[in-house]
Structures are given as structure tokens and as C-alpha cells.
Amino acid sequence: MPADRTASVKGSRLADQAWLLMMLPPLFWAGNAVLGRAVAGSVPPIGLAFWRWFLGMLVVLPFAWPHLRHDITPILARWKSVLLLGTLGIGIYNTLQYIALNTTTALNCVMLQSSMPVMIVLMSLVLFRDRIGAMQGVGIAVSLVGAMTLISHGDPGTLLGLELNAGDVWMLAAVVIYAAYTTLLRRRPAIHGLSFVVVTFAIGAVELLPFYVWESLGGHPVQASGITLLAVGYTVLFPSIAAYLCFNRAVELLGPNTAGLAIHLVPVFGSLLAILFLGEQPHLYHGIGIALIAAGILLATRRRA
Fold first, then answer.
1. What integer is the mean pLDDT of 180-208?
2. Are 99 and 188 contacting, i.e. CB atoms less than 8 angstroms apart?
3. CA 254 – CA 301 distance, rounded (Å)
4. What residue segments make up the domains of the chain, in order of their start?
5. Tens digits of per-residue pLDDT, 42-56?
6. Measured between alpha carbons, how far is 40 from 43 in angstroms, rounded to an integer?
7. Using alpha carbons only, how large is the chain's radius of gyration in Å?
8. Whole-number Å distance between alpha carbons of 27 and 20
């Protein structure tokens, strides 16, 4: 793990709060799948992804510039790793997710996304021979059951009755891509988090540009409208800048297998937001699902206590 000029300012009290950093990204991601589904058909997927990363880069650049000037040497020295991480985590992952949401439901996407912690463990095993302890394995399994409880509203028949389609294949591919990104974060250079974010955002935007032009010329340009501005603004500030800064640092502090359990908090926050802002009624399955996820995370991280 990078230990010098790392994902955030070393010694910063907020930057070292691993559990807070782990919980914030799923809070922001909880709205991403719902928003992506809501604007499907109104905002083209590649256009949404391009503007998300391009504008995110512009917003972060002024804050990253003082660090970037010092970090350019280690970035160039590890350019292959930086390019790969930017391609996987920025250029490909969310683009596939937005494409998936054009042809499948937010429920299907969240269900498939919940398999990501398991995928991260498998990636860590295959790529780095990481061994998983029995308690960690039990914790991941318990947390997964909790996530499925929330997603299915406590009815396993809901999951059995889901119809899979092409969009689900895109989403499964996205899950594999992000699991690889999370696992490979240990190969990132020892640079400031803002430097890493602005460079990887730039890589993603550049890679998406020709596909965005192709999508626009093919009759699906991004139309300036209130819903477009809302969608792009939310994705730039929260699922992009804030979530990536927090998640990258959480992976550094906790390791990919533990930090990856944050994905199971997405349906937790999704349920809580629906209760708070959409007037949905809390049910027993909410309590059971959240309790199982909390227990699973505690079991998986018990060895760190």
C-alpha cells in the first residue's frame, strides 16, 4: 500500500477515519443506480459518463494542481498502473452500468452489484494469492444475505422471479471490472488522492470522448435540460469526486476485501433514503437486512480489532 503521499493527506483526522470513509461511498452510490434508471432514455449513457468524468476533472483540478506538480514523476514512473486503473474504474465501469440501466431495472443492477464483495475476494485470490480467513468468509456471506434480504423486500421469491436480460450481462461485466479496479488499487503510485483522482478522471474522459462523439452523431446527443443538469451535477459531485476519494482511501486503510463490503451498504442507504424522502413505510425486513449486513461486516473485520 502506498504510505508516502497517499490517497489523502496523511495525518488528517478525517482522512484516517476508515469506517466513515467506507460508509460515505455507498450513500452516494445508492442514488446513482436510481438516477441512472430515472434518466434512461432522456440522457444517453455514454454522454452521462463522459460529462460526469470531464466535469469532475475540471472541478478537482484547481485543488489537485499543487499536489499534481509534485506527483508527476511517480505518476509517469507508474503510468501503466495509472492508465489501467483509470480505464477500469473510470472509463469502463460506470459506462457499462449506465448502458445496463437502459435495458434492465435498478433492482436487477443493485442485486448484481451486491455480488461485488465476493468478486473482489476472488480477484484478490487470483491476482495476489490473498488468503481469506474463515471468519471473513462467514462475514461476507452473512452480509450478502442481508443485502439480498433488503433487495428482495424479505421475499426470496422476488429474486427467483427476476428476469435476466442483456442489461444484466452489461451490469455483471461492470461488477467484474470494478472488482478488478478495487483489487488493483494496491498498485497505484504513492501520490496524493487528489492527484490520483484528477489523472484517472482525465483518462476516463479522454477514453470516452470518441464513443461520446459516435453516440451523439448517431442521433443520441446530450440535450441541455433541467433533468440533464441535475443528473450530471449529482454524479459529478457525489458518486464521482466524493465517493472515489473516500473509497480509494478506505481500500488503502482497510484492504480491498474489507472495503469492498461497502457495496452491501448500497441497499441499506437506498432503503433508508426511500423511507425518509419517498414516504415508504419501514418493514421488518429492513431491520433484518440491515442487522445482517452490520453483523457480516463486524465478523469480516473482527480480526482487525
1. 97
2. no
3. 9
4. 27-304
5. 788 899 899 999 999
6. 6
7. 19
8. 11
